[in-house]
Amino acid sequence: MTPITAITRVMLLIDADNVSSDVIEQAAQRTMAEYGAIHVRRAYCNAETALKQQALFKRLSVRPMVNISAGKNSTDIALAVDAIDLVIAERPHVVVLVSSDSDFAPLVIRLREKGCRVCGIGQQGKTGEETVGVYDDFIDLAHKSASSATTRVASIAAPRAAAAPRQPARKAASNRLAAKFSDKASQADELPVARATSSAPNAQSTPVAPRAPAAPRKTASRSAARKNAPVKVSAPSEAAEFILNAAPALRSGTDVPLNDVAKALRTAGLLGKHGSSLKLFDKLTDEFAVLQHPDRIRWTGAPGN
To answer: Closest Cα partner for 249 from 197, 182, 298, 301?
Structure first.
């Protein structure tokens, strides 16, 4: 007779108001791959989220627990009360809690006291360090839509950085511009020498005569380069142009609230619903300066900056 082996009972509880749909799907897939079965699957959310995610819940066999909102944390409280009842009734070995909310710390501690192993799954960019430490195990999953939106803007800026990967985009552009004017200045210096060489048979006396007037030409050429360089270097990159078009207030060069800019980028489709604007601007530090307390952003390429 084949011996009966103990089956690890797993309970998956999802704070669907806190994480995105693709993170929910990833969490369910990882939990299934880890334990082979999920015995209780519940997602706690308001009525709007339940309607929006009904196809996802059906596909994952997740039971939506709809909360008629009566306050800011009413869905979290509903999840916590249900979790204690389920642990007492179902006796699971593992509870997987999908949320980036630090408010669940007391629940996690209580579930562990009941003999459960408590694992957390959060959304990357939303989870604080204080949340991670309370769980027996915790992983962060990337929100795919936000990643693709950030990649979209970053890929626009990539061709400029590719020519000089160790230099910032604007510095590389400035160097290329300086080299261009330097080449033109050198050509201006050499041109009289070449003409003199072709017209005079004496090769030794030819280079000496044109060198005297060459200096003012070189100086004039470099002066023109210095005069014109700031105008061209200050022109925004393609990635910055997308951002400036989405948030025109940045063009003035003044400090603009970061939340307002993030909202404009989401409306324009350059940033995902839960995407981090700070991570986006970390890729464009040579053109945008993020100021904190309060959080504001400034385009450094504006005239006068």
So the answer is: 298
